[in-house]
Amino acid sequence: EDEANMVSSGEENRLHEDLSSSLEDLVGNFDERINSCLKNPDVNTEDIAPVQVRTQDEVMAESQ
């Protein structure tokens, strides 16, 4: 049982490290993108973060 707990604890630590680094990457990329937008006011934001336009019918169909 102790061995199973050690394995579980090791997996939790690995998951925590993976999640932390993923969040750091996400925040880092976001920060880079924001900085690039603020440095150049003429940048096209659609290239950085495209917006998907959805009709009311699509939203209603998805919610049912």
TrEMBL record:
Transmembrane segments: none annotated. InterPro entries: FEZ. Keywords: Coiled coil, Phosphoprotein. GO terms for cellular component: axon; cytoplasm. It comes from the Eukaryota. Belongs to the zygin family. This is Uncharacterized protein. The lineage of its organism: Eukaryota, Metazoa, Ecdysozoa, Nematoda, Chromadorea.
